[in-house]
Every structure is written in structure tokens, then in C-alpha cells.
Amino acid sequence: MFITERVSRLLDSSIQLLLCSSIPFPLHRLAIFIPVSMANKPENSSNLSVEPRRGDKQRDANSSSIALDEDNELEHASCLSVEPHEGNITNPLLHFLGCIKICERDNYLDGTASIWNQELKHQCELLKSKDDARNEVEKMKDSWKLNFDSEMKRIAVLRKTLAADTHDKHLVEEVNDSRGLWKTSRRTSDRIEEVGQPTSVDDSENGDPGPSSTPSTHYYIQDEYIFVPVIQFENGKGFTETDFKGLKGKFPNQKTTIKQLLHDSTPEDSLLYCKNSPERIKYFHIPSNNMIWAEETIARYYGNLRPDFKAVQRQLGRPVMTDTYRVLQDQYWRGRLHGDASSPPHARYMSHTCETISSSLDRPNDIVLFMPYLHWETSRRQSQFAHEIDNIMQRSTQKLADREAEAKRRRQGLGPSLILPPSPSPVASDLGDIVQRAQQNQGKKEVTRFTSKNALGCYLLAASRLYESMTTYKDRKLLQTYLSESPPIHPRRTLDQAYYWALNSTKKRDRDQVVYRGTTASRNELHLYDKEKETWPEHEGFNLDGRDCDICKAGIRKVSRVLMVDQLWMWVLDARTLITCFPKRYGANKQDYSGVHKSIRTNLENLGSNQPRTVFELALIVLDECTTTFFDRAKSRDGRPQVIDEFSMAIGKIMTKQAVAFERLWRWTDEARKVFRSQGYMGIKKLHIPLLDINPEGKLDREIEDIIEELNIMLRISNTHQNIVKSFIEKAEHILDKNGQCRQSFHRNVPMDIDPTHENYMSFKLRATECQDRIDRHVKDLEGLRTSAKNTAADVLHLLTMKQQQASVVQAWQAVKQSEETIKQGRTIMVFTLATIVFLPLSFLTSVFGMNNREFGDNNWKLKDQLLYIFLISTGVVFVSLLFAFSSWIRASIWSTYAQVSTKVFARTGVYTYIYQRKRIGEIIESTHKEISDIKRQKEKEAFLKKREKGQAALQKERGEGTAIPNKENQNQEPMTNGSHSSSKGWLRRRVHWGMTYRSNGRDLENGGGQGIGIQNGRG
């Protein structure tokens, strides 16, 4: 076995791509860069060789040409392909880092490469001028070189920073160690001279070919490597700023850094300042939902300092109300923040709104807008950052607890000398301490699922882990810095986190999303390798002839994705400046084709001369991209999920399964019909068990209900888009057309004089109508999916109902059959019972007369006499038994007699009183207590009335009106009350006495109607 030139170039390109590329690269996609024979190598293989495929052997045998047709290969070849594809370069940076050898990179842009000659010919055909074509090629070459140098410097800085980071430096060490093992392996050293040196760049101090020939002397500084895109318009055309030193690039791809925009210059010298170039339309985008950066950006715009929101609430020493604070009032900013310090990080979001505000006392012409929108993320990356957020919050909580404990000690007057040192092995107070200590003791070594005994496999895995850490380092540091600040940064949320924000964890629900299930490769989609036979059994019938299996390739390249809900924060200031804040995908750099801001820039490039006339049109483009980028049906190169298609496929799968289940149910019902109509007895157990099993239908019902739930959440967000966009259009129209003349002419089709105001209004109105139409179409698509899902859910429920009804019919049929069998058995038992009734007395008497005793004499009875006695007595016994068995009237009479006799016996002996009446003593006491309370309240009321009458009489006497005439009603009422009171007291004494007597002697029930008192009056 040997390493071919093809494999050498592949490895060289793959390693550099993993270490240098800015494209997301999951671990499980390593197989894309490894030949099939190597990727399929058994784990127990001890050699380090890479066996070429059959097609490779054919190409190596004929080194002068390629065995396959070059045109057909180039038709499918692209960047990262081992086939020649210089005429099909879709991503220059990816091609430079993944397809060009390191030793050839210095000469790639000097004009000697064949691709530039081909491009020069192409430009000559287009421009018809050789000088213009040469200039165009030189511009392209300079642009590529600037892009490459920028990326190489960024990679060098990240590599140097990770090598010094205590948490991530082990990744750099693993790459260095695994690369050394691979280079010193026997297979590599034996063939390295034959295939040529893969690189001519000297190893860096770390023993690793660095991404740049000049190692970086800088470390990663957060504000210097987070870029702020800047887009400007002047006189209706795109404008490229050249005077501001911190601005790079050309329209619409100019950008600066957070440090240069918010920290380096004074507010008056900042590009943000409102008085700098007021005639231009400016657009600044902050690539994160960071409340601190948003406040600083608006403060810089007005030339103010960031407001102290706590100081504004003071009654004394209150600062001056600046324009910045008027824009960032509580009802438009912090007051709309949902969630607090005790809430999970995903509970932080700004309540959606679109309001008109003013930074001055003039007519309002500023707009603030908060809106959620849908986006996506890979499941692996989302899980990594969810874990990172949990760790950050745990550390923040621990720091806060330590500060509170220290403050408490200071309040209590304890000096540092009185604080006991921590024990060497503290005992954890709860499970959280145990988990935290275990994570700390776990060390700085990363625990991974992927391991390899092959030196090359170890090198690739280590490189991929380092690449992954490099791509996520910026976002991790951003969260570590601002997640626990006040006000905090808002992390990205999954679909379930946005809806079920009160849940601490939605990991299980996130893994149950429709998009996740549709983009995750299952075991059924991958072919399995037989280690014993060292073959692929499922590939035998494919006749691959050295080619890759398309099914395996498609399954390997699948990347699990989940739906995310991001936030758009937008401010339109002074009708000429637009400021937005929304995040990017985690780890996404230049190649995020589904990024919202990337789509905005692409849209502006495609508009040509039809650029936005006002800042409100530009804001509409931003709103349009936020609401429509995710629903774009065109397939992109960045793995963006096709949401509508995924939901349609999920619903279609459930409908197919439901149809199959219906067919199976009809087959069961047909078998049941045959059983029901059969004359003899047929077993139905084989039908009864599957009809009672509703697990398959229950799974279908759960899946379709999950789909309906997700569609409802997405519809809720889309309806919010509709309302927010409608509100924004209305407010923008009022600002653009203050007098309302343009609106009247637009609705009435009345011609007006063409002026800039009318042109701006008509252009805005046209773009607004298109934006609303697109949002309406998306809402209709979602509503159509929801209707289809609800119909499918109704069909599944109907299937489940029919299955349960059929099971009930089978059970009823079984019950009828069992009842018939029971009746038959009852009749048989009745025959035996009658025979027993007849013959049991005969047998008994025969046995009696057969005994030898003196009472029967000398046993000289005649047979006639014996039979007479036997049959007469037996006839009487049989007759009485039949009367008891078949006469209900006789049984009732005997039972009634028994009941009366037993009742009298129980009453005379006191058993009835002791058992039954004892239970009512508590009720008697309770009712007695209630009556006593009523009597007391009545007496208190009478005393109050008497006292009031005496007071009225005394008052009349003082006024000289004479003696008060007593009230006849009161005179008549008092004796009655006293009488009733005395009678009540007597009745109470009698009742208590009766209860005591009645408890002491149960025989009182028989005396003087005692039974009636005990039964009727015992109710209290």
C-alpha cells in the first residue's frame, strides 16, 4: 500500500482547511476529505497506509492523462475536490486554503497561475478591450489577496491566542503532537520522497505549519476583531467612505470595528456623529443583541455619554436629560426587557413593538422597533453554546454568592483574620457543587467521542477540534464578557426556548423539532460495514467501480439543524440614520450565505441603480430580509434548511403511515367479519391483541401534534411580522408625508406635481407593498401547512377512534359468546341441580334406613314401608327446596320475617343503639352548639335594642318632651323572646338529658315513643 500524490495533496489541503478555513466544519464530516477505502478502514487495522480506490489505481497507472473524461469531471468538480476545477472556483478563500499547496501559495497571486490567463481571455471577450480586461483582472487579484491576507492574519492571531489560553491550549498541543506522530510514521516517511514534500514552509515554533509565514505578535482583542458593517448612500447612490481611516472595503461591504467606532475617537469625531455628513443616509449594524453596545452607539450618534439610568431616577442631583436618554426611555428600552437576573438566559428578550419617539421637542421623526424573527443553527453548535452559557451562569452565580458572603462578613464586623481557611477537600452542600467540582477536576483535556488508532486519523481529529475552537472563540468570549453584565447580552434562542421561556432546559424538546428530525441522518440511511468479511454487503449490487456510494455520501454530509428565534433591534434616527442589532450564527464568518446582513448587502448589490431613496426604504429592506431569508425556497450552499419542504415531508410521512395503518385496520376488520359470520367457534385472540395496541397510532398523534405546535409558534412570529411591518409603514408614511397630500393622491390616483417628496413617498410605498405581499405569502404557506397538519391529525384521531371501536366490537362479540356459553353451562348445572335435589334426600334416607340400630328394631321392615317413608319424606324435602329455588315471593316473605325478628332482637338487646346511633352523637353535639350560639346572638341583639331604647328615652327626657311612651311592639316582643329563650333552654336541657340517657341505656328506645325520638329527632 502506498500514498499517492492525490492523497498527499488531499491531506495537505484538508489539514490547512481545517486550521485556516472560516467555514463551519463538524467532526462527523471528516469522511468527506478522506477516500472511501480509508474512511471504511476497520478500527482494528494496524497499518497507517491509505489504500487508494480502484479508480485511483487506474489513474496512477496512466500518469499522462486522467482515465475519466475531463469535461464530465469538471462538470461536478468544485472547491475541495481532488479533480482539477480551476474553471469552477465558487469560493476563492476556500479554494486558496483547501486546494492550493502551501508551497504554491506565494506564486498563486503573482500572475503565473493558469487561472489568471483564462480569466484574462474571458474578460477580453466581455469588455472587448485588453487594457480594461487586464485592469479588471488586477482588481480581482488585489481583492483576493486582501481577503487572503486578512484571513491569514486573523487565523494567526487566533492560533496564538488559543496557544496561550488555559482552557484551549491543549487543543494546540494535541495538533502538534499528532502531527509529529504522523510525520514520523513509517508509511509517511517511506513515501514522502516519492510524492514530494507537501509543504516548503518551515515549521513554526510550535512544530506546526502556521497559517502565515510571519507569526502574529498580537493576541485576540475582542473589540478589535468584531466588525461593524457600514453602508452609506448619497444622492440616491451607494457611497464609499474614504476619509475615515478605520473604514475598510467598498460599498456595500465597508466595515469598521467596535473599538474604532465606539472607543477610539471622541464622540464628535466618530463616524456615527449625527452632524457628520448629515446629507447622507447611513446604516450601522451591531452584530449582536448587546444592550451595552446599543446604548453606546446611540450615545455616540448624539455626541453624548452613555446615560446613567439609575441617576435619572433620583430626586436630587438628577443629570440633564440628553437626547440619548429621550430615545432610550424606559418605555422604549429597558422597560421592555423581559426576564431578570433569576430567569434563564433564554428568557431575555425585548417585547416586540414599533413606536414613534422624538429626540427633541419638534415633530417626532424617530422610530424604535423590536421584532423576533426565525433563523437556524446547527444542532451541534447550538448544544455547545448552550453548555457554554450554563457554565458562564454557574460561574456568575458563584461569584455573586461569594460577594454577598464577603459583604455579610464585613457588615458583621469580622476581619480577614477571623475567616477560617477552606478545607483541602470541602464537602459539597448540594449536587450543583459536586457537578461544578467534577467539571473543574475533569481537567483541561477535552473528552471526545471520536478516537482513532491511526496516526492520520488522530491528526485530522485534533485539527478539526482546533478548528472548531477557533471558529467559536469570538462568540464564546463575547458571551463570557457580557452575559452577566447589566444590562446583559441576549443569547440566541431555539424555537422552544422562545416559546417556553420559563423552562430551565429545552434540550429534549429541541431534539424533537421537525427540522432536526428531517436533517439528521438515521441508521437506516447509512450502509454498514461487515468487519468479519471486510466488505460492504449493501454495495455489492451497486457496481460502484471505484466511485463513492451516493447514499453513504449523502448520509455522511447531513448536518442536524434546529430552528432559532433571533431578535431585530432597529432605530431610525432623524430620518437619515439606521442602526440595527441582530446576531449571526455561532461561528459564522464570511461564508454565512444565509446571514441576514449578508442577504442585505447582496440585495443592495443586485439593485444596481435602484437604490433606496430614504432611510425608511433601507429599513424596509432590513425588515424584508429578516422575515423572508429564512423562508427562501432557493437552495443555498451553506446548508440552510428548507423549512416549508421539511414540514411538508414530515406531514406527508405521517399521512403515509396513517394510510398504511388504515389499510391494516381494514384487513383486521375483514378477518373479524369472517369470524363473526362463522358458524363454529374461531379464535379471535390474534385480532384482539393488535386492536388493543394503540402505541403506533399514539406515536403518529404525538408527532402530528408536535408539528401543529411548531407551526403555531412560527405563525405567531409571522403574525408579529405582519403587525410590526404594518405599524412601521404607517409611521414612516406620516413622517415622509407630513401633510397627507401624497397619501391622498396615491389612494385616489390623483396626479400631482413630481417633486422629491412625492417620488420618495411613491418609491417607499411600492417597496412597502412588495414587502407586505411577501410576508402575507409566507403566512399563507404556514397556514396551509397547519391546515394540512390539522386534517392529518383529525385523520389519525379518526383512525384511533375506529380502532378502539373495532376493539370494543370484538370485546362485545366475545362477551356475547361468553354469555351464551354461560347460559349453556347454567342449563347443564340446573339439570344436575334438579337431579341432586331429587336424589340427595333419597340417598340420605336410604343411608339412614340402612343403619343397624335398636330404634329400627330387628330390621324386619317391609320394603313397602321403607319405600313409603323414604319417598314421602323425600317428596316433602324436594317440594320445599323447589319452592325456595323458584318462588321469589316465598323467599321475600322469609327474608322479611327474618329482618323484623332480627331488628327486634337488636333493639331489645341494645346492639342497634350501640352500633348505629352512637355515630350521631357528634352531629347532636354540633347542632346543639350551633343552637346555643344562635341563642347568644339573639340575647346580645335584644340587649343592644334595650340599651338603645333607654338612651332614646333619656334624650327625650332631657329635651323636655316628657316620658317616652314604651313601644308596644317591644313590649309584646320581650315576653315572647324571654319565653322562647326559656323554652329553648328547657328544650336544650331535655335534649342533653335525653342524649345522656339515650347513650347510657339503649332500652329507652322502646319506652314512650323513644324509637321515634331516636330516629327522627336524632337529626338535630
Q: In words, what does this structure look like?
A:
The protein is an alpha+beta fold and 1020 residues long. Helix content is 57%, strand content 6%. The protein has 33 helices and 11 strands. Strands 1, 2, 3, 4, 7, 8, 9, 10 and 11 form a 9-stranded mixed β-sheet that branches. Strands 5-6 form a two-stranded antiparallel sheet. The longest helix is centred in the last third of the chain and has 94 residues, at 756-849.
SSE diagram, text form:
Blueprint: H1 5-20, H2 36-39, H3 54-61, H4 70-76, H5 92-98, H6 114-127, H7 130-164, H8 169-183, H9 186-195, E1 227-234, E2 237-239, E3 254-257, H10 258-264, E4 281-286, H11 291-302, H12 309-312, H13 323-327, E5 337-338, E6 349-350, E7 353-357, E8 366-378, H14 379-411, H15 431-441, H16 455-482, E9 493-494, H17 495-499, H18 507-510, H19 514-519, H20 550-556, E10 561-573, E11 577-581, H21 596-607, H22 615-628, H23 643-677, H24 685-692, H25 695-736, H26 741-748, H27 756-849, H28 863-886, H29 888-909, H30 911-915, H31 921-958, H32 968-1000, H33 1010-1015
Parallel strand pairs: 4-11
Antiparallel strand pairs: 1-2, 1-3, 1-4, 5-6, 7-8, 8-10, 9-10, 10-11
Helix pairs in contact: 1-16, 6-7, 7-8, 8-16, 21-22, 22-25, 22-27, 23-25, 23-27, 24-27, 25-27, 27-28, 31-32
* Low-confidence blocks of residues: 1-75, 194-214, 415-448, 962-1020
Mean pLDDT: 76
Shape: extended
Radius of gyration: 46 Å
Number of strands: 11
Proportion of β residues? 5-15%
Number of helices: 33
Q: Whole-Å distance between the termini?
A: 105 Å
Backbone structural class: alpha+beta
Sheet with the most strands, sense and barrel status: 9 strands, mixed
Helix share, percent: 55-70%
